[in-house]
Design goal:
By secondary structure, this protein is mostly helical. The protein is about 45% helix and about 10% strand. It is built from 5 helices and 3 strands, in the order H-E-H-E-H-E-H-H. Helix 3 links the parallel strand 2 and strand 3. Helix 1 packs parallel to helix 2.
């Protein structure tokens, strides 16, 4: 899957002036690299670069994964907390998905990472 820096690199492919709102839902694929400070810098850069292209930015917070280990859970939880604070301080809309997905295995496929149809519906309703 794509990482935060990959998404920023693709922003130039968006049509200019035609995007009225943009949702950023990223970060889960970055945590395996164990570089939290780099991830924060990349997220900051992505959000600020995106803001130049579109004024209505919604940052959709990461989802807790199931059965993927304590380290992944901890890093995602920390990212969610940081994004909550950073978005509030920088006037970005933040959608906190964490509690809606916490301990809800029916919202995930068997791999504990990807969403089931019910999970997709829940995420789209949140946003």
């Amino acid at each position: 899957g794509a990482r935060v820096s990959d998404i920023e690199a693709k922003l130039d492919e968006l049509p200019g002036g035609e995007v009225s709102a943009l949702v950023i839902h990223a970060g889960t694929n970055d945590i395996r690299h164990r570089q939290s400070e780099i991830l924060k810098r990349n997220f900051t850069s992505l959000c600020k670069t995106t803001k130049k292209r579109c004024q209505n930015i919604i940052v959709s917070g990461p989802l807790p994964t199931l059965h993927r280990g304590d380290e992944a859970f901890s890093r995602l939880s920390s990212l969610n907390s940081w994004l909550t604070s950073w978005c509030a301080s920088n006037n970005f809309v933040f959608v906190n998905n964490w509690d809606c997905f916490w301990e809800r295995p029916g919202l995930y496929r068997r791999d504990g990472l990807h969403l089931s149809w019910r999970g997709v519906l829940m995420l789209s309703d949140n946003i």
